[in-house]
Task: inverse folding
């Protein structure tokens, strides 16, 4: 009789329809969305930081003047003798009055009076 009841229930019952699950109820999709949001946040902030660094560097190069102590990208220390549009002339040795011409982009930073040159 139990087999008959089982067959009878199966024949009379309606097939069940699956209800679609909303995307926020699916944990893997939520996890992927969160990872994507974090990656986008990091990428946007790092590019903003790079733009700020480039802006500060451009400002430093624009404000460079005669008499400033500078360090080149190659580590050469010198005093600015002449500043042109694309070039900077540095005096690198006082005793022999040696001067070298550099591209303006080769200047890494302007040294301040309270900053020891050898420490950097």
Result:
């Amino acid at each position: 009789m139990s087999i008959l009841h089982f067959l009878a229930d199966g024949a009379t019952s309606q097939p069940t329809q699956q209800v679609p699950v909303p995307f926020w109820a699916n944990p893997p999709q939520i996890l992927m969305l969160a990872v994507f949001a974090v990656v986008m946040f990091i990428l946007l902030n790092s590019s903003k930081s790079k733009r700020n660094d480039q802006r500060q560097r451009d400002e430093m190069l624009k404000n460079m003047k005669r008499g400033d102590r500078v360090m080149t990208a190659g580590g050469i220390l010198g005093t600015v003798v002449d500043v042109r549009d694309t070039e900077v002339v540095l005096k690198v040795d006082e005793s022999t009055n040696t001067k070298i011409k550099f591209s303006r982009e080769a200047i890494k930073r302007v040294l301040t009076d309270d900053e020891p040159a050898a420490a950097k």
Notes: The beta strands are 69-72, 77-83, 87-93, 98-103, 107-111. The CA atoms of residues 2 and 117 lie 95 Å apart.
